Amino acid sequence: xxxxxxxxxxxxxxxxxxxxxxxxxxxxxxxxxxxxxxxxxxxxxxxxxxxxxxxxxxxxxxxxxxxxxxxxxxxxxxxxxxxxxxxxxxxxxxxxxxxxxxxxxxxxxxxxx
Amino acid sequence: xxxxxxxxxxxxxxxxxxxxxxxxxxxxxxxxxxxxxxxxxxxxxxxxxxxxxxxxxxxxxxxxxxxxxxxxxxxxxxxxxxxxxxxxxxxxxxxxxxxxxxxxxxxxxxxx
Lengths: 113, 112
What we know:
A: mainly beta, 4-stranded antiparallel beta sheet, 0% helix
């Protein structure tokens, strides 16, 4: 079974620029999560999708972050415009509907200069 | 005060030692408790999952939950150099907002 795929693996941008991350979950997993992990901290949930509907986006900074999951499969997370404090690893995870086990991708490491 | 507190370490032990990793939490609504292992530059992977109080054992790993003290532990027996990683506790409520709340992680180094 292929794991969660994410791209790019690394991204360096300047503040006020835009950036987008892509995630392909494990086949058949209805639930998809985006987390932000700042250095030295645990992951923080940004948004959770069930199929292509949003379940929880209470911690997503909606003035600059957006996410979509078209057709209930792949997902993209966008930051526009980026701030210095957005420097972090952005992790995508997926799970079967109703299953506690989340499978994480390798993450995208973002550095905002 | 953070909802979940975890000592960042690093914790350095010799190979074969018993390792104890701990988290405390403040939200009494938390009912589901997990331990994740995260190797450097990788995503977390689920190690143990426990519902409510009690113990759960899986091979060299034992998870304990003491809800009265709001304290959870992960024990690793016969630790191996391959266990060197960051260990994250995570927990969530049964109702209401069900997102996981993670601790900040404890970095473990097992010396050969």
